[in-house]
Amino acid sequence: MNSIISILTGALIAVMIMLNGTLSGTFGNYTSTVIIHVVGLLAMTAVLFISKSKLSMQKGIPWYFYSAGVIGVFTVLFSNFSFSVLGVSIPLALGLFGQSASSILIDHFGLFGMKKIAFEKKKFIGLLIIISGIFVMAVY
Predict the structure, then answer these.
(1) CA pair distance 34, 18, nearest whole angstrom
(2) I need a labelling partner for 20 at 20 to 30 A (CA). Which of 11, 77, 109, 130 fits?
(3) For residue 107, which phi and psi values (nearest 5 degrees)?
(4) In angstroms, rounded to a whole number, what is the distance separating the alpha carbons of residues 108 and 99?
(5) Distance of alpha carbon 125 from its chain centroid, rounded?
(6) Could you report the per-residue pLDDT of 43-80, keeping only the tens digit for each?
């Protein structure tokens, strides 16, 4: 089930990049980023209301875990900048490469309190395959 959800998430990200980029073309990068996050806040508020979940802050969580919202803002903003020049597929592929490389580093060094998972050659081969795919997509 989690694999299907992950595939769906990837598909939604592709649609999101297209929708966000198109919105950015209409309103500009900064205004569209505000609109996107206000709509997201409203949607999440509705989800919390419908599910009858309560918002609560937890003690003892490192401050940097709360920075994910800031990272989300810059992710959308940078994606909007690149969409107008590169379309949907190249930013998505480059994003996949960035996510993969970052996650390998986080795993290898156990950053952010994560369990250490040693770097293996097969991960490097996977990164090379991603880079090769990006090269093919961008050049041909």
Answers:
(1) 16
(2) 130
(3) -65, -50
(4) 14
(5) 22
(6) 999 999 999 998 888 888 888 888 889 999 999 999 99
Q: Is the whole model's pTM more than 0.85, yes or no?
A: no
* CB distance 95 to 79 below 8 Å: yes
CA–CA distance from 70 to each of 16, 31, 108 (Å)?
18, 16, 24
Report the run of H or E that residue 101 belongs to, with start and end.
Answer: helix 89-109
CB 97, CB 130: distance < 8 Å:
yes
Contact between 96 and 130 under an 8 Å Cβ cutoff? The reply is yes
Would you give the DSSP letter of residue 114?
P
Q: Quick check: 110 and 116 in contact, CB under 8 A?
A: yes
Q: Give Cα separations from 106 to 75, 79, 99, 130 (angstroms).
A: 18, 22, 10, 19
Amino acid symbol at 53? S
Q: Which two tokens stand for residue 34?
A: 């505000």
Structure tokens of 71? 């990272």
